[in-house]
Amino acid sequence: MSLTVLVIRRFGVKANGVASIAQVVKSLELPALPCRDVVLDFADGTGEALVSTVRMRAMGEHPPAVGPPRVEIKMRTEDGAGLVCVLKAGWAPLLPST
Known about the structure:
The chain is mainly beta. It has a 6-stranded mixed β-sheet with strand order 3-4-5-1-2-6. It is globular.
């Protein structure tokens, strides 16, 4: 059995002398729910990162396996140098909500 989770990776970047956090997101299958400080190896050539937080949402009105992933895993901030590789591997930029 595996879990479909939404993984958010964060990268410390600097543009025009201003530091910020760039976030990328991808839906992944994991064999189990990780805890804080567990290392996830993404097996896509982008390396590994430490779990910072795990957020679980109630099922709501969707039946099982229908609707968005109900588990969100946010990784600890990584070095900004890895951002380009992650984007090339198919991770999508997570744009700030308005």
